[in-house]
């Protein structure tokens, strides 16, 4: 995984922060990978960054609110969200945020 | 670390995504901890979430752009940013984003 190569702002970020329940690790990782691949195919998708320690953070980047809404309602993603609430997550917060500016550094 | 207990939107998120260079791990972790503690003392600070695997993601939450600017310019933080560019990071992107809405789940 590398840093997402997003375009010039403005664009949107969906910050998904979560605490996992124990267990179901293999199933969870398979679904996470599947969803990452599926997200890439959606209209308006701009990139993703993800890391997990105690807290997991996945930030996906999107062109606009329309594309975020469509992804939220995508059928396979709906199934994954339901499984997330029933089996995988102790708690999560999803934050929808408008990226107003960004600055980068490369050594 | 737990999920940040942020207030009702709107508020701001600073999404700091980075790739580390190898080495200087102890020094880096000490400074990261010091900066996390220092951030908590700043006016307008609302919380932080952080995780690192291949990519490191730290999302800090702030009341407004004024508080983000003050934190960016805080003297000790300036020193840390300089050390980051000189020693710790291969690359990073900082994104300033207005959180428009959020929704949470707790099991």
Topology:
2 copies of one chain form a homodimer.
Chain A: E1 11-20, H1 25-40, E2 45-52, E3 56-62, H2 65-73, H3 75-88, E4 89-106
Query: Strand fraction band of chain A?
Result: 35-45%
> Assembly type of the shown chains?
homodimer
- Computed over alpha carbons, the radius of gyration of chain A is 14 Å
- Count of strand segments of chain A: 4
Major β-sheet strand ordering of chain A: 2-3-1-4
Mean pLDDT of chain A: 96
What is the overall number of helices of chain A?
3
Q: State the share of residues found in helices of chain A, binned by percent.
A: 25-40%
The biggest beta sheet of chain A reads:
4 strands, antiparallel
Q: Provide the succession of SSEs of chain A.
A: EHEEHHE
Could you list the spans of chain A in which at least 5 consecutive residues all have pLDDT below 50?
Answer: none
The largest inter-chain interface, given as chain pair and residues per side, is: A-B, 42 and 42 residues
Key structural traits:
4-stranded antiparallel beta sheet; alpha+beta; homodimer; 107 residues; 3 helices
Concise account of the structure shown:
2 copies of one chain form a homodimer. Chain A has 107 residues and is α+β, with helices and mostly antiparallel strands. In chain A, 36% of the residues lie in helices and 40% in strands.
